[in-house]
Write a structure and sequence with these properties.
It is a single chain. With 270 residues, the protein is mostly helical. It has eleven helices and no strands. It folds into two domains: 48 residues; 213 residues, MetI-like fold (Orthogonal Bundle). Helix content is 83%, strand content 0%. The longest helix has 46 residues. The radius of gyration is 24 Å and the shape is flat. 30% of the residues are buried.
């Protein structure tokens, strides 16, 4: 009884220390960001750097009130492109990996083709994408999808292959279907690998949306950057970059939160 109490106390102490360390790291990260912004603000003003070369953070923030930039609508467009392509890549990436795990023949036939398609520079496809699909959000969603799909596919395939064969044999012995194998055995076991690919894909999703708006869009934050470049409105360009970064960070944090809710801590560490 006493040993159980001691064990529980040690575990609670360990949790408390871990939380303290986490809070400490968060405080350091926030302090570093604040220090960098202050250094930037006072450094630019002290050195009298021209506003069109490097604006101060206060100048960048001031552009948020300029109505002609329509920040809310342009942010919504970019966020829709990022999230749309990202979710499509997750769905099709996991579905394709499942098909490959079920059929060696399909893997032999289609996987080399997918590798070849992935090696094609996505920016080089921009003019063709415009010809095929014209301008619009759907085109940029497709470009975002093309960048996110392969990392999710590869990590999911690896995760499905890491499943113990004995577990699959057990389901077969109980006359379980392949779908039941996937739902109850393969998908839960592959989750750490899937989330690994999803975290990589968040970065690629942002890059895909930006590239898409550069070459095939008439709306969005990246498109706005091109428009204000002609007038050397550098603060507006910085604000567009800041908003794109915030969208990407929110997506990444959402994936981390979902991983924390679904994947056990031991599996995340391994």
């Amino acid at each position: 009884m006493a040993e159980a109490i001691d064990s529980g106390s040690e575990q609670n102490e360990l949790i408390r220390l871990q939380r303290r360390e986490t809070n400490k790291n968060r405080a350091i990260a926030i302090a570093m960001h604040v220090a960098a912004l202050l250094f930037w603000e006072f450094g630019v003003r002290w050195l009298e750097v021209p506003r069109y070369v490097l604006p101060a953070p206060s100048d960048v923030i001031a552009t948020i009130t300029v109505a002609k930039y329509d920040w809310l609508n342009n942010s919504w467009v970019t966020a829709s492109e990022i999230l749309g392509g990202y979710l499509l890549a997750i769905i099709l990436g996991i579905a394709t990996a499942l098909l490959f795990s079920w059929s060696k023949w399909l893997t032999t036939l289609a996987f080399p083709l997918l590798i070849t398609l992935n090696m094609i520079p996505k920016v080089a496809l921009g003019p063709l994408v415009i010809v095929w699909f014209s301008y619009g959000i759907s085109t940029n969603i497709l470009i975002t999808f093309s960048l996110c799909y392969f990392p999710i596919l590869l990590t999911t395939i690896r995760g499905l292959r890491e499943i113990e064969p004995d577990l699959l044999d057990l389901v077969n012995s109980l006359r379980g279907t392949k779908w039941q194998q996937f739902i109850y055995i393969q998908l839960p076991g592959a989750m750490p690998f899937i989330f690994s690919g999803m975290k990589v894909a968040t970065i690629l999703a942002v890059a895909g949306a930006v590239v898409g708006e550069f070459i095939a869009s008439d709306r969005g934050l990246a498109y706005l950057m091109i428009q204000v470049q002609a007038s050397l409105d550098t603060p507006a360009m910085f604000m567009a970059v800041t908003l794109i970064t915030l969208i990407g960070m929110l997506l990444y944090l959402a994936v981390l939160l979902l991983e924390h809710m679904i994947v056990p801590q031991d599996a995340r560490k391994s």
